[in-house]
Amino acid sequence: MKKLKLSIEGMHCASCASNIERSLKKVSGVKEVSVSIMLKKGTVEVEDGVDIEEIKKAVAKVGYKVVKVE
Amino acid sequence: MNESHQEKPIEDHEVVSWKRKLIWSWVFTIPIALLMLSERLFGYAIVEMPYSIIITLILGFPVLFIFGFDTIKSGLQGLFTFYFNMDSLIALGTLVAYLTGIFSFTGFVTDYSGVSAMIMAFFTTGKYVESKARGRASSEIKKLLELGAKKSIVIRNSKEIEISIEEVVIGDVMIVKPGEKIPTDGVVVKGGSSVDESMVTGESLPIDKLKGSNVIGATINQDGILYVKATKIGKDTFLAHIINLVEETQSSKIPIQKLADKITSVFVPIILVLSILTFVNWWLLFGNLSKAIGVGVAVLVIACPCALGLATPTALMVGSGMGAKRGILIRKGEAIQTMKEIKTIVFDKTGTITKGKPEVTDIFSKVKESYLLQVVASLEKLSEHPIAHAIVSKAGLSKYLKVTSFSIVRGKGIIGKIENKEFVVGNRALMNDRRINYSDFEIEIEKYETLGKTVMIIAEGKKVIGLIAVADAVKEESVEAIAKLNSQGYRTVMLTGDNEKTAKAIAEQVGIKEVIANVLPEDKAKKVEELQKDGMVVFIGDGINDAPALKQSNVGIAMGTGTDIAIESGDIVLANGSLLGVVQAINLSKATFRKIKQNLFWAFAYNIVAIPLAVLGLLHPIIAEIAMALSSISVVTNANLLRRSKID
């Protein structure tokens, strides 16, 4: 298990945050998800071995962009 | 700090881009509005039909498809992928209205194309104001993010060079001139000064720093030159920890928010369906296609998931920012909600109510005092306990006696051998365990204890040879803080491993009525659990020894000391060691929660009232859009008003 902090660009309303959460939860290996519109950041807890590209794709799929992963 | 460089433009970029869209939208929308209203305003139409429709369509095109491009695109993407968002409603509403302009030439529908541009223009205006207000809500946090120093002067190869903060490595000696920021956490190796730490700990008075003092990065050196050896860099610094804590708060969910979140996630599809049903109903019932379209559009644009979705995070953001400014770090958002249920406040004694730096005040010896001190200090040298430090520093020995065996009895004292003689140093409990009779000393012991001093009994073999009394002074603010909590009606309790008399004396000094004494460290959590039977409990402790009790309590408040903040435990962390922070934390939590409730109430109320009005056809689409924009602006503005509440 590890925690990733994503900086996400393009969020402008509360339903954006909940869409990103919904999309990220569908990625296999993702446990906890929390996206904050105020910080424009998301925190995801993922199992080891989860591809970061998958996470980025899940965010891109709903129309937003991950600009940084920590 | 790298992070802050990137953080800022993203936020500003949003406000700037909405502003640009807003200005240009209105440049094209104002003429449309004049065209639409000219008949009502001036009594005649500036441009006759159908030319006015053509002009409206031409002027409206850039408003929707250039300045509103991002919104339309994101909205349609949402519609096609079934990840509906706020934009889906606006996109659908404006597109439908725009198309009526084109289809009006067929004669079946009335032209609503002017409405589409007006909706978009009001939408961008609302978004601009909202994004600005959101920026204001996070202003304290942003300040915190930008607090870190960018550059540092370090000594390398005996030369002073200026390097960027990322290049500083542990062990570098940094030179900090008066008025400059200390680049990163470290320890003073040369020089002396006072340092303003208010920006990270909320402590308003400058703190004196001498050789050996720890300093915090991003705090400001006041008057002398400091040579600081870097001990922590990057993610490990005090400031980085604080930022991390604050971000953690934002991503933690508050129970009350759950319902709003659930509704937000299903809100848009429900509105889409409702809008279609409304449109079909109106059309079938009244046979008026144009009116049906107008009402359908009004339903689309009046619904506002944003007010619901922003109610909690904006208030939480303002609240945690206010806290951070005072050195109060709310780690778990849930604590805010729990705080209003709290009945009992339990304090650990040492280091929480008292300074945690005991000093030897009295020595009562049956043997030579210097011998007693020499023996005890040699033994205590091996212990980490604060009282041990006090005795060792009082003795000030240059040479210690050789200790051959040594053991610590947790919560009671120590036992060790010197020159084959066994010494027992500790409290009554330890003496009782070892069957050592101290009754001859009872009067002396009680005399010290009623003064709030902790007494160490020293026995050589089975014979008591002396007493050492240690006092831990009460923090100046403890009295004021506890008086405030008492007057707010809380039950205040002191929990300590000390004996009853000492504990009671201290409790009396600070105004605590209940004392639970003689509690072994491992039993603190159990005592908290017992107290929880009478209502929710806040436990305040140092975070290291008290971690289990902090966890057991409903809200655990960990007291940070100086450069170390106990972040692993505690729902709330106080960066400075003052108990006044507890009062502020409680007041802030309650005020923030009240704000969240208010916001959620208004957001729910707005939607519950406005949506039926729109369904009934009582709201013109433009009025609906204005109302929608105002609802989310009012929620964010109300959150910003939290700053006015008194929490000190």
Instruction: Kindly report the average pLDDT value of chain B.
Output: 90
Summarize the amount of helix of chain A as a percent range: 25-40%
Strand order of the largest sheet of chain B: 10-22-21-20-11-18-19
**Mean pLDDT score of chain A, rounded?**
89
Number of helices of chain A: 2
Tell me, briefly, the overall form of chain A. Answer: globular
The description of the largest β-sheet of chain A is: 4 strands, antiparallel
Q: How do the helices and strands follow one another from N- to C-terminus of chain A?
A: EHEEHE
Low-confidence stretches of chain A: none
Number of helices of chain B: 23
Roughly how many Å is the radius of gyration of chain B? 34 Å
- Major β-sheet profile of chain B: 7 strands, mixed
**Rg of chain A, please?**
11 Å
Total number of beta strands of chain A: 4
What's the total count of β strands of chain B? 22
- Beta fraction of chain B: 15-25%
